[in-house]
């Protein structure tokens, strides 16, 4: 009898693991849904045999409640919910946990994707794709800065997380990175760009801290005088980060059970 291949062993090893449910916000922009689906395809390719599902908080189908109900109907026992969100806020701290608690499937809720070094890696890569130069002279660097454009939230923890992501990105770029917001929080992206220019930072780029195309990402990009990066979308670091959050949630659950 032939021995199973490494791929077959990997598939068997992950087949009994909890389902990974990626929880996206949802958007009226059709590009958002296609981007998220492509990202999930990358996750599946990286972890063959791991069940991966999608659930939305609002605006798109399937909704998270429907995804969890479908898993229950299929006899799935466990799921790990990983928010496709880049900071803490109302959705991460209340909406997703409350939906998970009401489900018949046993669930664990992972941390959002940010802040994390992998997120900073993706942000840097998108900036370089948009034309950001990593070989600036000292004079060019002294005149440069980045505005990190995020959605915004009334929850102060969201701003804390975004500032941490900005610091991680600044460490990679060697220039100031200022958080700014599309909605709810201050400053706006336009205000941040102008403030940096008034301080002599005339070469200001906008880094799009959004998971997929949509109204906020488009409006923030329009505020850029020079470079505006694309949303993070299907950058390889995003799939890697989703799996990292899944694995961390599983490890935390195992440690809690052993305690």
UniProtKB/TrEMBL annotation:
The record's annotation in PANTHER family points to: FERROCHELATASE CHE1, SIROHYDROCHLORIN FERROCHELATASE, CHLOROPLASTIC
Signal peptide limits: none
Which Pfam family would be a valid example here? CbiX
Q: Which molecular function term from Gene Ontology is one that the record holds?
A: metal ion binding
Alphabetic keyword roster: Lyase, Metal-binding
- What InterPro entries does its record include? CbiX-like, Sirohydro_Cobaltochel/CbiX
Matching SUPFAM superfamilies, A to Z? Chelatase (SSF53800)
The name on file for this protein is Sirohydrochlorin chelatase
């Amino acid at each position: 009898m032939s021995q199973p291949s490494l791929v077959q062993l990997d598939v068997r090893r992950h087949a009994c693991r909890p389902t990974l449910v990626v929880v996206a916000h949802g958007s009226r922009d059709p590009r958002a849904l296609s981007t998220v689906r492509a990202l999930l395809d990358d996750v599946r390719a990286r972890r063959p045999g791991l069940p991966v599902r999608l659930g939305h908080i609002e605006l798109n189908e399937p909704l998270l409640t429907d995804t969890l109900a479908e898993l229950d109907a299929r006899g799935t026992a466990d799921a790990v919910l990983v928010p496709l969100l880049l900071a803490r806020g109302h959705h991460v701290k209340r909406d997703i946990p409350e939906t998970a608690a009401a489900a018949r499937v046993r669930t664990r809720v992972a941390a959002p994707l940010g802040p994390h070094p992998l997120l900073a890696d993706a942000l840097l890569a998108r900036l370089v794709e948009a034309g950001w130069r990593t070989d600036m002279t000292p004079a060019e660097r002294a005149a440069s800065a980045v505005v990190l454009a995020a959605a915004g939230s009334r929850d102060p923890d969201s701003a804390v997380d975004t500032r941490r992501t900005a610091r991680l990105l600044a460490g990679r770029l060697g220039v100031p990175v200022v958080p700014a917001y599309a909605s709810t929080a201050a400053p706006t992206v336009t205000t941040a760009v102008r403030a940096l220019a008034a301080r002599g930072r005339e070469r200001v780029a906008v880094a799009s801290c959004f998971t997929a195309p949509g109204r906020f990402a488009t409006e923030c990009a329009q505020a850029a005088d020079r470079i505006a990066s694309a949303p993070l979308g299907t950058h390889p670091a995003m799939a890697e980060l989703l799996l990292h959050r899944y694995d961390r949630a599983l490890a935390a659950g195992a440690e809690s059970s052993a305690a």
